[in-house]
Amino acid sequence: MPRFFVSKENINEEERMISILGEDAFHIARSLRMAVGDSLTVCDGEGRDYDCTLTKIRDDRVDCDINEAKLCPAEPPYKATVYQALVKGERLDVAIQKSVEFGASAIVPFESSRCIVRMKGEKEGSKSQRRRRIAAEAAKQCGRGIVPDVTEPMSFGDMLAEAAKCDLAIFCYEKEGERMLGTTLESLRAEPPKSVAIIVGPEGGFSPEEAERAEQAGLSLLGLGRRILRTESAAAFVLACLSSEFELR
User: Fold this and answer.
1) Closest CA to 111 of 143, 158, 172
2) Distances (CA, A) of 125 to 16, 134, 139, 153, 198
3) What percent of the chain is modeled with pLDDT above 70?
4) Mapped to the 3 state alphabet, what secondary structure does the chain carry?
5) pLDDT tens across 27-81, in order?
6) Domains, the chain, with CATH or none
7) pLDDT tens, 114-144?
8) Whole-model pTM?
9) Which of 26, 28, 59, 138 is most open to solvent, judged by the fewest CB atoms within 10 Å of its CB?
10) Which of 126, 246, 228, 143 is nearest to 186 (CA)?
């Protein structure tokens, strides 16, 4: 069933009616060629789904009646923020898309010492808009109840300070051979974390100095197994492990 996100101001609970505007309305009318009477799901972006029936279709506005409202079942029981180091090419796009599909609530790019790509001030604005569109499309495709935010890039130090506020902060470090992700997650079964930070480095990984800073900040340096993962797939791997441990049991 087609899925669309709208602002809460476009949802009229009293009259049990929702309006879909702009590009999404045009997509319904022209691309999907939906008709009055067809069904679709509308989400308020805060985890609430509305099963709806189309009542009026125009290129710039679509109206539909609310049949049922319910909490979206696709959201995990924890808030996972992916802190992804800036990487070149389409790798960051892939990391964003897969992080959304695997349950991340937000994606925060950051700059580290081995990043080839650097923050470039005003140029980051248009990039951030495109990254948010990627997150929105991924959220629609996989049935999310929210559209995970993709923030502006931040410095390594700011990232550490923010990530350390989470109940569990996972610093993915390929040189960590003793403390493993699986063992750490297993130890938390009795009291699962409500907030999780997943920190992934660039193509060349983190420097020893950065790993030391992360540990001093209170983050958990963890290995992800015997195979070294690409930067664009590491966060998805960790999110899948979180889902297996705390969501699918």
Assistant:
1) 158
2) 37, 15, 21, 10, 24
3) 98
4) CCEEECCHHHEECCCCEEEEEHHHHHHHHHHCCCCCCCEEEEECCECEEEEEEEEEECCCEEEEEEEEEEECCCCCCCEEEEEEECCCCCHHHHHHHHHHHCCCCEEEEECCCCCCCCCCCCHHHHHHHHHHHHHHHHHHHHCCCECCEECCCECHHHHHHHHCCCCEEEEECCCCCCCEHHHHHHHCCCCCCCEEEEEECCCCCCCHHHHHHHHHCCCEEEECCCCCCCHHHHHHHHHHHHHHHHCCC
5) 999 999 999 999 999 999 999 999 999 999 999 999 999 999 999 999 999 999 9
6) 3-71 (2.40.240.20), 79-246 (3.40.1280.10)
7) 998 888 754 666 788 999 999 999 999 999 9
8) 0.91
9) 59
10) 246
What single-letter amino acid sits at 54? L
